[in-house]
Amino acid sequence: MKVNGRTTVGKFKSMFKDEFGVGVRVYHGVNFAKDNATLASIRAGEPKKKSDDFEIHAFTKVGNAEKAFKDAFAVKIQIENKEGELADDKATLASLKLQGIKKFISSIFK
Length: 110
Hints:
- The longest helix is centred in the C-terminal third of the chain and has 16 residues, at 93-108.
- The chain has one domain (2-108).
- By secondary structure, the protein is α+β, with helices and mostly antiparallel strands.
- The protein is built from 3 helices and 5 strands.
- The chain has helices at residues 9-20, 62-73, 93-108; strands spanning 2-3, 24-28, 31-32, 54-55, 77-79.
- A 3-stranded antiparallel sheet has the order 3-2-5. A two-stranded antiparallel sheet has the order 1-4.
- The chain starts with a strand and ends with a helix.
């Protein structure tokens, strides 16, 4: 999944949910960012790494993805699990999606 500073918070959250099957919380300071704000407009200072596009891959661990996003955009995110709680930093994004699929399948065959 690729995003850049012109991506709105709402679009990013939607893309993230579609790609990884879980939600993501985006912050502007200590508050949740507004969905119509761009990622560039809610920066807290200058990003550590400047790039036009930022990619997140399925086999990235949650903690690493959150840190890399902060480094790229100077914006804090927190990734959720399927229950909407904060995901374990050691889980991969792919494993979070897989947990949701397993939960769905097991609910069908109860």
